[in-house]
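Whiteboard transcription, Tuesday session. T.W. wrote the structure tokens on the left side:
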């Protein structure tokens, strides 16, 4: 099942999301992410969080559409995003797309990316999408949906990732080991159609910047 998680982070131009909003089996709004769902006319399947950033209007909107509410205390060990990941996994997600999960705060962005690696290691596809960049968590194989000239960076999430092979890039790799404490695969460039990233073990965040960077 394909899930959408709408977090309360940075979105940018909301019109960018509209063409994609109907391609999901279930949609989980994370607290204030419900405000964005209302703005986009999206029907939440579930709302999760401590409800400190959701507007009264958005809460009423979700309730009127029959959304399930999972309300948790503000003081807790897990973040609202982590709770949403757990719920998605429990409800049978095989693929998760995250909107608003990166960009607004560095601490939240890093926490969200690293927390999602646990699901990626279980074989669940996880990606963070936005108008500015797309981030794919890869522990097996990815055909990057980009074009020649696009910039792609690899960030190792964890101690290391091995068996990393890049095809179709300006700087190729073959069975490389990437050290998570010394990143060395930043700012590569697509030079061929259907570029591929293969990872033997570990998790790599493949960050794709559509178009030419300034």
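and on the right, the sequence the group agreed on:
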């Amino acid at each position: 099942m394909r899930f959408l998680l709408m977090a309360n982070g940075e979105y940018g131009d909301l019109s960018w999301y509209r063409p994609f909003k109907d391609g999901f089996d279930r949609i989980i709004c994370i607290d204030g992410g419900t405000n964005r769902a209302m703005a986009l006319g999206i029907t939440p399947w579930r709302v999760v969080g401590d409800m400190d950033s959701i507007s009264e209007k958005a809460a009423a909107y979700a309730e009127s559409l029959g959304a399930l509410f999972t309300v948790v205390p503000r003081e807790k060990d897990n973040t609202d995003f982590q709770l949403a990941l757990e719920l998605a996994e429990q409800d049978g997600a095989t693929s998760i797309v995250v909107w608003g999960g990166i960009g607004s705060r560095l601490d939240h962005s890093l926490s969200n990316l690293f927390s999602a690696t646990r699901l990626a290691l279980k074989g669940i596809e996880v990606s963070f999408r936005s108008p500015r960049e797309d981030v794919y968590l890869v522990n097996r194989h990815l055909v990057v949906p980009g074009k020649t000239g696009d910039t792609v960076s690899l960030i190792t999430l964890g101690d290391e990732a091995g068996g990393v092979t890049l095809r179709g890039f300006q700087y190729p790799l073959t069975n490389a080991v990437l050290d998570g404490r010394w990143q060395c695969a930043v700012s590569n460039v697509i030079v061929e159609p259907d570029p591929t990233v293969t990872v033997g073990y570990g998790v790599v965040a493949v960050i794709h910047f559509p178009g030419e960077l300034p």
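Someone added at the bottom: The radius of gyration is 18 Å.
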